[in-house]
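Throughout our pipeline, every protein is held as a single compact record rather than as scattered files. Nothing more is needed to write down the fold, since each code stands for a local backbone conformation. For reference, a complete record is included directly beneath this paragraph.
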Amino acid sequence: MHFPIYLDYMATTPVDPRVKEVMDQYLTMDGIFGNPSSSSHQYGWQAKEAVEKARAQVADLINAEPAEILWTSCATEASNLAIKGACCCYQRKGKHIITLATEHKSVLNTCKAMRQHGFEVTILTPEQDGILDLKKLEDALRDDTILVSIMAVNNEIGVIQDIEAIGKLLKPKGIIFHVDAVQAAGKIDIDVRKLPVDFMSFSAHKVYGPKGVGCLFINHHPRIHCETQMHGGGHEFGLRSGTLPVHQIAAMGEAFAIAKAEMVEKNQRITKMRDYLWGELSKIPGIQLNGHPEKRVPHNLNMSFANIRSDNLVKALENLAISTSSACVSAGREPSYVLKALGLPDNLAFSSIRLSIGNYTTQEHIEYAANYIKQAIESLRD
């Protein structure tokens, strides 16, 4: 068994060897290395074909049209483009934005930045299980609300929001709905023809693709408008200029195609491992699962341990690659803002760790981790 055992798949995933094989075809002189914007020779034509094939592969996972997929450098850029672009286009209708306190910083900080442009931002607090109360959202809506941004699957606690219900609440009111779907792709079914969403952000490196590439779904039914945020040569339908990284885009397409083909089987296997792991760890006195026990992806366990600091626990668990739920900031250590939004007191927020299971996790890894964590907790409490 190779140590440390990787249990941090929600931070990033390794590139699938099949994805790397595709990516390698678009780098060197003996491959397809051309600029997809070069329209006068076959090098450009072949690169363009690769880009459009990948666009179709990504679209296929979420039942979108290829023309609704816009390439970006990452999901952070995609969320920035959606939020800023929508606000610029629809500000005559109003200047009120709503989001959730447990959103990724790429959404929270982008919404907050819009305050400098005269927008008001309402940040809702979820219930203690991490789920958004739709009544709270409905009560927060105003005549001048133009945008709501809620993530599908939380990156820290793994809970799944009811995106369909939220969209159905917003659609009759003509409010733009953006969804950070980074942690949802390849983990839950996404059908944008059934979900009333306008924008969705995605990233390759959370779906066994490479870092440095993402995309934004922009609904064309009806067509949602978005103002350009990066100007230049007019690439990507004039919305996002810059030479496209064909090797990364082709790899993202392949990663999403594999996710579509293998999601059901992998989710079943990961669910069994997660259930075994939680079954063992739940025997530890003073343990608490953070986030809704059922409305969550099987890949995630976020837990607090009474009277144990997570940084001490991580040091004791040197054979596991895991995340704490605390963030280091310049002013010193602070508890996870996600866990604080759930109402956890500082002592429990400071005692939390996140285990995330992925495609290369084995039952042997899980059994080792369960025993290892139990032993570490006993040792730290002696």
Notes: DSSP finds eleven helices and 15 strands in the chain. The longest helix spans residues 246-281. The radius of gyration is 21 Å. The CA atoms of residues 11 and 229 lie 27 Å apart.
